[in-house]
């Protein structure tokens, strides 16, 4: 009976380890994607800043307001990405802690 328990428990442990590694790799990929999205949004914010300056010089107030609205929208998206990043980092930390406690 003990032989069967050892066989099944060791295979389950190795499967759990494989799953944990897969989860960690997926979380890392998600972090990379979020960083890429944030870079894109930061570039869009800088473009809107430049457009705002140009429209301010030409005294086109309607266009200035539109640029500011888009900029604030992009900034809200960046904040949301930061929240997602923190959640992913917490999930990674919890996975690593679970691995340490299992050992």
List keywords for this structure.
103 residues, mainly alpha
Provide the β-strand percentage band.
under 5%
Q: Describe the global form.
A: rod-shaped
Biggest sheet descriptor: none
Span of the ends, CA to CA: 24 Å
Structural class of the secondary structure composition?
Answer: mainly alpha
The amount of helix comes to over 70%
The low-confidence runs, each spanning 5 or more residues with pLDDT under 50, are none
Mean pLDDT: 87
H/E series: HH
Count of individual beta strands: 0
Over all CA atoms, what is the radius of gyration?
24 Å
Written account of the structure:
It is a single chain. By secondary structure, the chain is mainly α. Helices cover 95% and strands 0% of the residues. It has two helices and no strands. It has helices at residues 2-57, 61-102. The radius of gyration is 24 Å and the shape is rod-shaped.
Would you spell out the secondary-structure blueprint of this structure?
Blueprint: H1 2-57, H2 61-102
Short structural description:
The protein has 103 residues and is mostly helical.
